């Protein structure tokens, strides 16, 4: 197993007007709801790649939070099969203005309560990441806007 991830992504969250968390999902080129993620560039660490990919895919910036977890899944590339490893982190969004980046194959973005995000997610492992992230999202403090 490789010691560092091939890709990284974020469970992007913000709070609604009642202080409840909402999770950002993207609609990918395979027609499924998932989390924003992407490949690490040469020399890039997972945290940097995760934040960059979220911005490239959704236009969202924010404050990187806790490590959520790692998923692995088989990928076919050039006739070879290998396990792709993706690390996920929490990211507290600076705004709610997410924009789907069509050039990245993303057709839609949406903010959903954690339970709904989990149900909507089109991949089993992503559902598990969302479920774990939901337990790590801090309660909204009254001091921050």
Blueprint of the fold:
Layout: E1 7-15, E2 21-27, E3 33-34, E4 37-39, H1 46-58, E5 62-77, E6 80-93, E7 108-112, H2 114-120, H3 124-136
Parallel strand pairs: 1-6
Antiparallel strand pairs: 1-2, 1-4, 2-3, 2-7, 5-6
Helix pairs in contact: 2-3
What structural class do the secondary elements suggest?
A: alpha+beta
Q: What does the radius of gyration come to?
A: 15 Å
**Order of helical and strand elements:** EEEEHEEEHH
- Overall CATH architecture: Alpha-Beta Complex
Average of pLDDT: 93
User: How much strand content do the residues show?
Assistant: 35-45%
Q: Low-confidence parts lasting 5 or more residues at pLDDT below 50?
A: none
Number of E-state strands: 7
Shape summary: globular
CATH-derived topology = Nucleoside Triphosphate Pyrophosphohydrolase
Q: How would you describe the oligomerization state of the chains in this entry?
A: single chain
Number of helices: 3
Our measurement of the CA-to-CA distance between the termini, rounded to an integer number of angstroms, reads: 42 Å
Largest sheet: 7 strands, mixed
The total domain count is 1
Looking at this structure, what is the CATH superfamily?
Answer: Nucleoside Triphosphate Pyrophosphohydrolase
**Helical residue percent?**
10-25%
Summed up:
With 145 residues, the chain is of the alpha+beta class. The protein has helices at residues 46-58, 114-120, 124-136, and strands spanning 7-15, 21-27, 33-34, 37-39, 62-77, 80-93, 108-112. Helix 2 (114-120) runs antiparallel to helix 3.
